[in-house]
Automatic annotation (TrEMBL):
<keyword id="KW-0503">Monooxygenase</keyword>
<protein>
    <submittedName>
        <fullName>Cytochrome P450</fullName>
    </submittedName>
</protein>
<dbReference type="InterPro" id="IPR002401">
    <property type="entry name" value="Cyt_P450_E_grp-I"/>
</dbReference>
<dbReference type="InterPro" id="IPR050364">
    <property type="entry name" value="Cytochrome_P450_fung"/>
</dbReference>
<dbReference type="InterPro" id="IPR001128">
    <property type="entry name" value="Cyt_P450"/>
</dbReference>
<feature type="binding site" description="axial binding residue">
    <location>
        <position position="415"/>
    </location>
    <ligand>
        <name>heme</name>
    </ligand>
</feature>
<dbReference type="GO" id="GO:0004497">
    <property type="term" value="F:monooxygenase activity"/>
</dbReference>
<dbReference type="Pfam" id="PF00067">
    <property type="entry name" value="p450"/>
</dbReference>
<comment type="similarity">
    <text>Belongs to the cytochrome P450 family.</text>
</comment>
<keyword id="KW-0560">Oxidoreductase</keyword>
<keyword id="KW-0479">Metal-binding</keyword>
<keyword id="KW-0408">Iron</keyword>
<dbReference type="InterPro" id="IPR017972">
    <property type="entry name" value="Cyt_P450_CS"/>
</dbReference>
<dbReference type="GO" id="GO:0005506">
    <property type="term" value="F:iron ion binding"/>
</dbReference>
<dbReference type="GO" id="GO:0016705">
    <property type="term" value="F:oxidoreductase activity, acting on paired donors, with incorporation or reduction of molecular oxygen"/>
</dbReference>
<dbReference type="InterPro" id="IPR036396">
    <property type="entry name" value="Cyt_P450_sf"/>
</dbReference>
<dbReference type="GO" id="GO:0020037">
    <property type="term" value="F:heme binding"/>
</dbReference>
Length: 504
């Protein structure tokens, strides 16, 4: 009892001191309660809807307090570009989240490391693997795996599983020289770890991070701590064992190549394998969501599909698949991709940032160590930037080519893999539009409707709810091309060997 009272008393004093220190010039936001601030609202919020409503009520910058923490939510492209890009020296760090940073990732996850020399080293290694030149070298592998995807779409109604296999096999081939099928144990283990991590870093999961008393509870009686530590152990074991297989593989892969990089010299092996292993998370979760939203858009907006397909027919014809070099002549395909990403952003709040110094913006005081949330959903639904933002209208990008798109981030922490991600999306979207017709599926003679607002927010990720679609080859000529499938004689091993030759 004495221990409990001591803890409660400590909590009260801590929050009382923090409450007195809370700056009164924060941006406007929902009314806080004494001691806990807005923590009661975060405990039950649905971030996507709640944040959007707050922006409508309080403006493009929303300020809150979560116990001892200060938090601001940024809701326009202009503000994010000005702060995260223009003031990168202040807005490029990450908030300290004990459960995720310490227990779940052991301080090894590049995405969560504070801005500084260690993060710069990690980022240089990621850029060495994913810069524009390297992304071009991976086009052969993207071609091979996207052909496998097309074959899979032809043979099953379960397009979600086919899409996941594509993204997983593409990144695991690069990481460890291993092309995988859906039920491959390595793919399954990586998927499980990614699922848990993405859920943990969502904007609504701040309760543990904002209550210091919870952080002092011994792991032996705190199941959430034990679970997080177990996930970290599973991740490091998986990343290390997979890298060992990659190093011993015959063909070129990142596990071999990364050890030759200057920035990797002297880095503990566990950290090196971890910073490479987490690229799976970035490459699969977001891409799967984007491609599922793409299929949803194709079913719901046939006129936009028809316009892109006419362009493909004119440029590519019906006897071959589109290639990356065709994209310069396919503006309606490019804007279709842009509109899918804008219409349904797969990471509606991204990973929170943190200020490394005090700042004053528009007369508001934003203290050091403020958690900063980039509200991608509000940005992409801003009627001051996008006419009729809730409508799916790819032509808006033709009419206004300079429209902003923030999916790959801002400033110093912009996504290192954006060039590779764009190459992958170009390949899959252009080829699926070239190859297939999209329509509603039918069950027992009745059309199965799709609700575009049936959305699932899973931590940091936004996904469409379950839906079905009828996807089939557009005509006999395209069916014949699809039936050829990928060139199995030029498999992953040969393609990776070719990358090695190009690098050398």
């Amino acid at each position: 009892m004495i221990v409990i009272l001591t803890i409660l008393g400590s909590i009260f004093l801590l929050y009382l001191i923090q409450w007195k220190r809370t700056p009164r010039t924060l941006p406007p936001g929902p009314d806080p309660l004494p001691l806990i601030g807005n923590l009661h609202q975060f405990a039950r919020l649905v971030p996507l809807k709640t944040f959007h409503d707050w922006h409508k009520k309080y403006g493009s910058i929303v300020g809150l307090t979560l116990g001892p923490r200060t938090l601001v939510i940024l809701g326009t492209h202009a503000i994010n570009k000005e702060l995260l890009g223009g003031k990168g020296q202040i807005y490029s760090s990450r908030p300290y989240m004990p459960l995720v940073t310490d227990h779940m990732t052991g301080g090894l996850n590049t995405a969560l490391i504070p801005y500084g020399e260690r993060w710069k080293t990690h980022n240089r290694i990621h850029l060495a693997l994913l810069n524009p030149r390297m992304a071009r070298l991976y086009e052969g592998l993207v071609d091979f795996e996207s052909r496998r995807l097309l074959t899979g779409i032809c043979s099953t109604k379960d397009f979600s599983t086919v899409i996941y296999r594509y993204t997983a096999s593409l990144i695991l081939s690069l990481q460890y020289g291993k092309s995988v099928d859906v039920n491959d144990p390595m793919s399954r283990d990586f998927k499980e770890i990614t699922h848990k991590f993405v859920k943990a870093i969502g904007a609504g999961n701040f309760l543990f991070e904002c209550l210091p008393a919870l952080q002092r509870i011994p792991p032996s009686i705190a199941p959430w701590i034990k679970e997080s530590q177990g996930l970290h152990h599973s991740a490091t074991t998986l990343f290390s064992s997979s890298a060992e297989k990659g190093v011993n593989a015959k063909e070129w892969n990142w596990s071999k190549y990364v050890r030759t990089l200057k920035d990797a010299h002297g880095m503990p092996e566990e950290e090196l394998w971890y910073l490479m292993g987490i690229l799976y998370e970035a490459a699969t979760d977001t891409s799967v969501a984007i491609l599922r939203f793409f299929i949803m858009a194709c079913v719901l907006h046939p006129s936009a599909v028809e316009k892109a397909q006419k362009e493909l027919d004119s440029v590519v014809g019906d006897s071959r698949l589109p290639k990356e070099e065709d994209m310069a002549q396919l503006p309606h395909v490019s804007v279709f991709i842009n509109e899918v990403i804008r219409w349904r952003p797969a990471t509606p709040e991204g990973i929170p940032r943190a200020t490394s110094a005090d700042d004053v913006y528009q007369g508001y005081h934003i203290p050091k160590d403020t958690t900063v949330i980039v509200n991608m959903w509000a940005m992409h639904m801003d009627p001051n930037v996008y006419d009729d933002p809730e409508s799916f209208r790819p032509d808006r990008w033709i009419e206004k080519p300079d429209l902003p798109l923030g999916i790959f981030g801002y400033g110093r922490r912009a996504c290192a893999g954006r060039h590779f991600a764009q190459t992958s999306l170009n390949s899959v979207v252009s080829r699926m539009l070239w190859a297939f017709s999209f329509s509603h599926s039918y069950e027992n003679g009745r059309r199965v409707e799709i609700d575009p607002w049936d959305l699932e927010q899973h931590g940091a990720s936004l996904r469409p709810g379950p839906f079905s679609a009828d996807i089939r080859p557009r005509d006999a000529s395209r069916r014949a091309v699809l039936e050829k499938g990928p060139n199995v004689d030029r498999g992953v091993e040969e393609l990776l060997t070719q990358v090695d030759k190009e690098i050398s």
